[in-house]
Design a protein that fits this description.
This protein has 172 residues and is of the alpha+beta class. It is 37% helix and 23% strand. The chain has helices spanning 9-26, 33-47, 83-91, 144-159, 166-171, and strands at residues 53-60, 63-70, 77-79, 95-97, 115-122, 128-136. It has a 6-stranded antiparallel beta sheet with strand order 3-2-1-6-5-4, sandwiched between helices. Bound molecules: methionine sulfoxide (SME).
Length: 172
């Protein structure tokens, strides 16, 4: 487990690389999107001690609905015009927020969260299917290394792999 205050950038990057290797090995041959999200949340939450809430919100019917996560109970649904998660969907790029309390429209599911990173999740067809949201109790916990590490994991797990077609999503 990596403790944020004690590691340098290289150690953090190595931890992301180890997590990527572990996740891709565990998910080999697994196409189910929820199983992949559950595995990513679990491995990441166990790898970094400064991850207070780690999980996914999935695009469902024009809003974000909570998916697999590790952490305290979270808001179930987020409209796309709200929160850091909604802002990430609107701009289509990762957002790193050093102090959530000064971010306009931030949704405080848990007041202990102080900083946050949200990464868009694209499928192989180029559809934005979810966001990966990580909160920390520390102010300014996330930086470039976290953004790059999380984006690489999301790309490897959800974008580089064939995903179920829409019919399979809807009907299993
Ligand atoms: N803070 C997020 C809401 C989700 S929770 O952090 C789990 C937001 O502002 O979108």
């Amino acid at each position: 487990m990596v403790e944020n205050s004690r590691v340098n950038r290289d150690e953090k990057a190595e931890c992301y690389q180890r997590a990527l290797v572990e996740i891709t090995a565990m998910l080999e041959g697994e196409r189910d999107e929820v199983a992949r999200m559950a595995t990513v949340s679990s491995v990441l939450a166990g790898a970094f001690d400064y991850f207070y809430w780690t999980g996914f919100y999935r695009m469902q019917g024009g809003e974000l609905v909570v998916g697999p996560y590790q952490g305290t109970p979270a808001c179930l649904r987020i409209a796309l015009d709200r929160g850091i998660c909604g802002a990430t969907v609107r701009c289509g790029e990762s957002l790193v927020v050093d102090n959530v309390h000064v971010f306009p429209g931030h949704i405080a599911c848990d007041p202990r969260s102080r900083s946050e990173i949200v990464v868009p999740v694209w499928d192989a067809a180029g559809m934005l299917v979810a966001v990966l949201d990580v909160d920390s109790e520390q102010v300014g916990a996330f930086g470039d290394v976290d953004r790059e590490g999380l984006e690489r994991i999301v790309a490897a797990v959800f974008t580089a792999q064939e995903t179920p077609c829409q019919e399979e999503r809807d009907w299993g």
